[in-house]
Amino acid sequence: xxxxxxxxxxxxxxxxxxxxxxxxxxxxxxxxxxxxxxxxxxxxxxxxxxxxxxxxxxxxxxxxxxxxxxxxxxxxxxxxxxxxxxxxxxxxxxxxxxxxxxxxxxxxxxxxxxxxxxxxxxxxxxxxxxxxxxxxxxxxxxxxxxxxxxxxxxxxxxxxxxxxxxxxxxxxxxxxxxxxxxxxxxxxxxxxxxxxxxxxxxxxxxxxxxxxxxxxxxxxxxxxxxxxxxxxxxxxxxxxxxxxxxxxxxxxxxxxxxxxxxxxxxxxxxxxxxxxxxxxxxxxxxxxxxxxxxxxxxxxxxxxxxxxxxxxxxxxxxxxxxxxxxxxxxxxxxxxxxxxxxxxxxxxxxxxxxxxxxxxxxxxxxxxxxxxxxxxxxxxxxxxxxxxxxxxxxxxxxxxxxxxxxxxxxxxxxxxxxxxxxxxxxxxxxxxxxxxxxxxxxxxxxxxxxxxxxxxxxxxxxxxxxxxxxxxxxxxxxxxxxxxxxxxxxxxxxxxxxxxxxxxxxxxxxxxxxxxxxxxxxxxxxxxxxxxxxxxxxxxxxxxxxxxxxxxxxxxxxxxxxxxxxxxxxxxxxxxxxxxxxxxxxxxxxxxxxxxxxxxxxxxxxxxxxxxxxxxxxxxxxxxxxxxxxxxxxxxxxxxxxxxxx
Length: 646
Ligand code: ATP
Ligand code: MG
Prior knowledge:
InterPro entries: Ac_CoA_lig, ACAS_N, AMP-bd_C, AMP-bd_C_sf, AMP-binding_CS, AMP-dep_synth/lig_dom, ANL_N_sf
Enzyme class: ligase
Distance between the termini: 39 Å
Shape: globular
Bound molecules: adenosine-5'-triphosphate, magnesium ion
Keywords: Acetylation, ATP-binding, Ligase, Magnesium, Metal-binding, Nucleotide-binding
Helix content: 25-40%
Number of strands: 30
Radius of gyration: 24 Å
Strand content: 15-25%
Protein name: Acetyl-coenzyme A synthetase
Cofactor: Mg(2+)
Largest sheet: 8 strands, mixed
């Protein structure tokens, strides 16, 4: 079960930053001598006062404490902007592509500097101080980046809340970190529809109170209410202040941001990241994982509301002086060819997206891709979920025309940056495997009791020692941090993910540990069954969960979304069961299949299996927290058409 191998293409190898030998040498040094390794690579960013201490971390259950570069000082915004001005002031820092294909603009590093300095001065003028939490509830417009960097410039802590969240979710997140400031826009625009951001903010503040100032960016000019004394127009305020705001000197361990996890498994956690280690790790991973070369155009399609947007739209690329593309819209508007048209329009070299988008576009038909040139593309990336080999092959063959390596990057909000990933010039690829650890990362696989499993094996993925980008705490609740990540296996960081390691030492994420099913004593990752289903030409998406089964202990319940235009039928069900039996074996045969026009997903596009599990168990009265669902209406249809009725 090691799968096919795709070696590094010759054209990539020629110019790559690292080859396999160099990777191995650096990796070994990074784990044998973390102080030496990170002491050297910490210098990739500019420090105001250089650090003397590099690593000071403890995974001891009774004393979990994580500090990196703790006696150094720096400013993150100055690292992302000021230090590039002399050499690349006129180079595009951000290319913004609007929701409509005729809208785009370019912001150079000089222009970014002016915008961020002004915004920082606006915040200061309105009482925002070092350490204050500022909630950013914005559409994907350049001002979202200005807002985050302005916070970083003055040492305020941003908490970005995805613009698709409801007033309730926003209120919860404002309250959790007692944030007295909100930055928002009148309305957002996505896929041709407007999102009432300011109205949602008003409704959120009615619930949670205690917000002193709301800064409002005008995006659409739509009708909104402005509350006298509380709400301020961004464009009016920036005109009143100077374009010079000296960066605050911050300690490496001062908080940079709080970000709530996407809520796939339950109540979101306020993940806290700090300044120095985070920036070193985000910038280093961005450079090596994407093999970034100066001048290249890099596009990560995530929203800044997710950690991927923080580390790989903003902080990593900008710290590296890169050109980063920011996209306001959705992959299917106005057509399913939008991503590839944007790649051609802006000559994108590196493209980073999520399996959910790849599967959706795969279902829409190849012609949307093949109509475009994509000749600028060099590297493709994937993040967010296991990418099933079928989707990987399509991405590789159709989008990348077999010439672009795919970096399948495994990481979490908690990890700050990518932990397990191929490097384009160093790693032979296997479709569906995140391959090998990045520098400084020591993954291990343990069984349910926490015993280390050697060699080719399967079990629970843990990390045995700290890296600079690791989260420091759950905001305001260090005990929850310890209990969530360090209590299951004492002395180890528990990721919550299941994982397989093959004979070549490659890692294969099999999904959440909670999602492992046990059929007649055989343990199976749901991802494996899903991959088999999606490999069938009629299937566009699939989600598999276990449900109580009298004979087998657990039965396999599969929710299947068909390709556009196909009709569900009993005959097709039989075909799919046969197909899975052939792909994996009889043990993996779905017991029940439900055709579902839509699956419940978080707003970052991840399938929320705990809801599917409840419906499969025929106990759907209490579905738990569904506030992070993208489209709550799909749940009703799933319940109505459930297959396991008492
Ligand atoms: P919550 O922690 O609130 O349940 P979440 O885990 O979905 O939400 P994120 O931090 O956004 O929040 O997602 C991290 C998780 O996403 C990982 O633990 C893993 O399960 C999955 N994941 C991310 N990238 C990959 C990848 N390349 N391959 C497999 N799984 C991935
Ligand atoms: Mg998680």
